[in-house]
Design brief:
Largest sheet: 6 strands, mixed
Distance between the termini: 60 Å
Structural class: alpha/beta
Strand order of the largest sheet: 3-2-1-4-5-6
CATH class of the largest domain: Alpha Beta
Shape: globular
Number of domains: 3
Strand content: 15-25%
Radius of gyration: 23 Å
CATH architecture of the largest domain: 3-Layer(aba) Sandwich
Number of helices: 13
Number of strands: 12
CATH topology of the largest domain: Rossmann fold
C-alpha cells in the first residue's frame, strides 16, 4: 500500500476525504509503480479567499477579478464564499455556500490573502476572525464595517455619503480592482451557460429582444410603467422583431398581461440556470438595474439599461449598450420608492430608437 508521504496533497484535484476524479475514472495514483508522477497532477501554492456574498448580479459582476488573480497568482488555490455558488465560475477551485459548514471549514484554514468585497456585517465579521497573511477590503471594528486599508476607503466613503456617491466617476469594477490593489484594465465577466439548461426552438430569422420587466420587490422606484412595456412590445412586434418577456415569479402575472395586450412572447419564469439560457437566446436585452443586466453582460448581449436612482458611472457595459435615464432629474437617488415616478420620463420612442441603433451597430 502506498504511504501518505507520497500523496500529492498540493494537487488541485486532491480532496482528502474522497478519491479524486482521475482516480475514479482511470485508477491512477499520485505516483505509479515506477515512481512516475501522475499526468493529471496540477500543483497549487498558496490560498486566496474571495468573500462576495451579495446578490446574484453582484457576484457575477465581481468575476472579472478572477482574470487578474489567475495572472498574478497562477498557482494559488482560489476559494469563494457566497450566497450564490451557482454563478461562481468553475475556474474557482473551492466554491462555498454561506452556511455553518463553510464557516467552520474556513476557520480551520490559513489563507495567504482574503479579499472581502462586501460591507455586510456578517462578511466583515468573518473577515475579522479568519486567519490570513494579508486582508483586503472590509472588516469589522466596534461592530461596524470599516475599510482595512487605504485601497478600500473610496468604496467605503461612497457607500455612506450620497453626495460622494453622486460625484463618483469610477465604475464598480474600478472600485473592486482598487480594493484588491489592482487597476481595472477591461477584464470581462465570466459567466458559464449551464449544460443542462432548457433550450427553446425560437425563430432564427428574427432579432429577439428580451424585455426584462421587473426589478425586485424592494426597489419599485426602478419600475418602468406597465403600459410602456406594452407599447414597446407592440412596436417591436409590428416592426418585425420578436419581443420576449423576461422575469421571475414576481413578474409572472404582469408578463401574462403584457403578452395578452401586446402579442409579445412569454415563455414563463424559470430557475436561474434556465433563465440564463433564456437570456442567451436574445440579441438584445432591455432592463433596469437587475440580475438580468449582469447576466446579459456576461453573455455579451447588447443592452438598453434603464437607470434613475444610481450613479450611471457605476456601470461598465463594455461597449455593449446605452444607459437611458429620465428626461427630468430624478430626486429618488438610492431610494426604494419614488413619489414622482420619474421612470415615466423614459419615453417608449427613445427606447425603441436606441434598440434599433444598437442592433445596426457593428460592436
Amino acid at each position: 500500500m502506498r504511504t501518505p508521504e507520497i500523496i500529492k496533497t498540493d494537487c488541485k484535484l486532491y480532496r482528502g476525504d474522497i478519491p479524486c476524479k482521475p482516480h475514479k475514472q482511470s485508477g491512477v495514483h499520485c505516483y505509479d509503480k515506477n515512481g512516475k508522477l501522475c499526468k493529471f497532477y496540477e500543483p497549487r501554492k498558496g490560498k486566496i479567499l474571495i468573500i462576495k456574498l451579495g446578490a446574484i448580479g453582484d457576484v457575477i459582476r465581481t468575476t472579472p477579478i478572477l482574470h487578474r488573480l489567475k495572472k498574478v497568482k497562477p498557482e494559488a488555490e482560489i476559494w469563494w464564499l457566497t450566497y450564490s455558488p451557482e454563478v461562481v465560475p468553475k475556474i474557482v477551485d473551492i466554491i462555498l455556500p454561506f452556511n455553518l459548514q463553510s464557516i467552520l471549514l474556513l476557520h480551520s484554514v490559513n489563507f495567504d490573502i482574503i479579499y472581502n468585497f462586501d460591507k455586510d456585517k456578517e462578511a466583515c465579521s468573518l473577515t475579522q476572525q479568519l486567519k490570513a497573511k494579508v486582508k483586503k477590503g472590509f472588516t469589522l471594528k466596534n461592530g461596524k464595517c470599516s475599510p482595512i486599508d487605504k485601497d478600500a476607503v473610496h468604496k467605503f466613503m461612497t457607500g455612506i455619503f450620497d453626495d460622494l456617491n453622486k460625484a463618483n466617476t469610477k465604475s464598480y469594477l474600478e472600485e473592486i480592482f482598487e480594493i484588491a490593489g489592482f487597476k481595472f484594465k477591461g477584464e470581462q465577466y465570466i459567466l458559464e451557460i449551464p449544460s443542462d439548461s432548457l433550450s427553446w426552438n425560437l425563430p432564427k430569422n428574427k432579432k429577439i429582444i428580451g424585455l426584462n420587466t421587473g426589478c425586485g420587490g424592494r426597489w419599485t422606484s426602478r419600475l418602468w410603467p406597465e403600459e410602456y412595456w406594452i407599447k414597446l412590445a407592440k412596436k417591436l412586434k409590428n416592426t418585425g422583431y420578436l419581443p420576449i418577456l423576461l422575469g421571475g415569479e414576481q413578474e409572472h402575472q404582469k408578463n401574462i398581461r403584457i403578452a395578452e395586450k401586446s402579442g409579445a412572447k412569454y415563455l414563463g419564469h424559470f430557475p436561474l440556470k434556465d433563465f440564463i439560457s433564456e437570456v442567451n437566446q436574445c440579441d438584445l436585452i432591455v432592463t433596469a438595474v437587475t440580475m438580468a443586466l449582469h447576466i446579459a453582460i456576461g453573455l455579451n448581449k447588447k443592452i438598453v439599461l434603464f437607470n434613475n436612482i444610481f450613479n450611471k458611472n457605476e456601470f461598465e457595459l463594455y461597449g455593449l449598450g446605452e444607459i437611458l435615464e429620465p428626461e427630468f432629474e430624478c430626486n429618488c437617488f438610492f431610494s426604494p420608492t419614488c413619489e414622482n415616478n420619474c421612470m415615466q420620463y423614459i419615453r417608449v420612442e427613445t427606447v425603441f430608437n436606441t434598440i434599433e441603433k444598437l442592433l445596426k451597430s457593428k460592436n
